[in-house]
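JOB MANIFEST
job_type = single_chain_structure
chain_count = 1
residues = 226
[input]
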Amino acid sequence: MTEPATVAPGRARGGRRDEILVTFTRHVAERGYDRANFGDVASELGLSKGTIVHHFGTKDRMLAEVQERYMRRALDEARAFLARLDRPEHRLAAFVHAGVRYQTDDPATTIAFQREVVRLTDEPGMETARAQRDAYRDLVVGVLRDGEAAGVFVPGDARLRSLQMFGSLHWMWTWFDPEGRLAPEAVAAEFCRTLLRGLGVPETAVAEAADPDGPAAACARDVVVG
């Protein structure tokens, strides 16, 4: 995902509307939705609150657009690397490698989404983002089921396994530091090893799927950055 976390005033693509959304997204990432407000966004950008209302209407609508944009890009990218990879363990690993890259390459949008993902459960106005999230989950479930049918993964509950994977990735914002003890590529590799070993994948195949220079990581890198 390549949309910038921050931009200089007046520089965002699409004019002030996109600039407002990028700034709001960063505020949500930094302080959470409840503490983000039109007043702070307007003050930072030298706008009136009325200008923001003109473009978005309500704060709820702004958050819904943040979630929808994030999931639209994520779905497009997931479908792209699924089209490039054939082996189930590589496909699943690509989701993991991509998930860690999002934390590194587009932290503001990723953290804003993950901090507030619970709002997709049943809040009005989130129907589109909720459907996108479900479609993304179904892609992962499909990979898990295909891997089981092919004898690559041991039998198990694919839906539960997908939630386990998402749980490890979606809480990264609470602890992950791209400049920390482990490089992002090392974190992704360790996540892949843990996940694939639990699914019964042979060690040689685990090593290839987890490898930061292997086909799964390279595919995710090309799709997310390209």
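[summary]
The CA atoms of residues 60 and 125 lie 8 Å apart.
The two ends are 9 Å apart (CA to CA).
exit_status = 0
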